[in-house]
Amino acid sequence: MLGITYEEYLECSFGIISTLAQHMNTSFSHKITDEIWYEVTFKAK
Predict the structure, then answer these.
(1) What pLDDT band is residue 32 in, cutting at 50, 70 and 90?
(2) CA 10 from chain center: how many Å?
(3) 13 vs 1: CA distance, rounded Å
(4) In terms of residue numbers, what domain contains 12?
(5) Considering the domain boundaries, does residue 25 fall inside one?
(6) CA distance 29 to 38
(7) Residue 20 has pLDDT above 70, yes or no
């Protein structure tokens, strides 16, 4: 995929998600599940 590692992809995703959460005035948490899914949860502040 585009010559980047999965970890680099997740780092980029983290930047996008944190910007989105800030814009939405929410907090978020993230984790990688046992099945290698990147799970994100947004919470209202």
Answers:
(1) confident
(2) 7
(3) 15
(4) 6-44
(5) yes
(6) 11
(7) yes
